[in-house]
Amino acid sequence: MKRASATVLASLFLLAYAWQIKADDWPSRPIKLIVPFAAGGTADLLGRVFAQVLSESLGKQVYVENRGGAGGMTASAQVARMEPDGYTLLVSGIAPHVIAPALSRKPEYDPVRQFTHIAYWGGPPIVWVVHPSLGVNNLDQLLTRIRATGEPLSYGSPGVGTQGHLVAAYLARKLELPLAHVAYKGANPAMFDLIGGHIKLASVTWTTALAHIQAGAVVPIAVTAKRRLTGFPNVPTFAELGYPDLVATVWFSLSGPPGLPRNITQRLNHEVLRAIDLPEVRAKFEQEGIEAERMDAATFARFIEEE
């Protein structure tokens, strides 16, 4: 028995030593950053911003791979089972690591214990946007139109359990609105269907809708920001329209598989914090309505647990 125990302990020691050697040599090859949503949404945008910055600071390419599905849970579950070698990372966030697991009857992973949470990025508010053919320009007109049709109005969101879904579901329940949810594998597909007139309303991130708002392809109704956004003084907040509970940020972040070596976690956190202070990144965040916040890895891990 003693010999067996000694053998097991020796094996564990050698395994830990081998991981440490690999961690000390990190990164020695390209790093995959998995975005758990379709291309074109906020998760994708932030993933590509930080992939570029990290590629430059780490000296190895960080490339994005999109794997949409189940409100971000599909790809997140895959990352939770991967080796913690620092070469597969995940764009995490409030949807796949707070909301979706809480709503799922049988979540495929523990959003706290089955990941190494590395760094908080930040995120934009949710905006309600409508197709111009609906003929409405503000929330009161939209509510009147919804109630007058007699049939449920279809609205799109980035997926079940995303904040876009929950904001619309909250208002539908509070105001007894006949809304029919259409879940997409990301905000961008929802916007494409909205622009095409297949749905008339979308509840998505400001980042995803911004270019289409600027082009006049969709009409913004209200945002879940604390205050009106810079450059868009005519777009009201839900709070000022009488819904103070609808102040929310769709935050995103960087995470990895459980057991990621501490030196890799700390290096990545340091590089993210450095990136947030870069003038070009700050300008991009302001343009896209993204609010960032600096957190070390330990603080961010506690933040997710509290969420």
Give a written overview of the molecule:
The protein is α/β, with parallel strands linked by helices and 307 residues long. The chain is built from eleven helices and eleven strands. The protein has two domains: 2-123 and 251-306, D-Maltodextrin-Binding Protein, domain 2 (3-Layer(aba) Sandwich); 126-223, D-Maltodextrin-Binding Protein, domain 2 (3-Layer(aba) Sandwich). The protein has a six-stranded mixed beta sheet, with helices on both faces. Helix 2 (42-58) links the parallel strand 1 (31-35) and strand 2. Residues 14-19 have low confidence and may be disordered.
Lay out the secondary structure.
Layout: H1 2-24, E1 31-35, H2 42-58, E2 62-66, H3 73-80, E3 88-93, H4 94-103, E4 116-123, E5 126-130, H5 139-149, E6 153-157, H6 163-175, E7 179-183, H7 187-195, E8 201-205, H8 206-214, E9 219-223, E10 252-256, H9 262-276, H10 279-288, E11 291-292, H11 297-306
Parallel strand pairs: 1-2, 1-3, 6-7, 6-8
Antiparallel strand pairs: 3-10, 4-10, 4-11, 5-8, 5-9
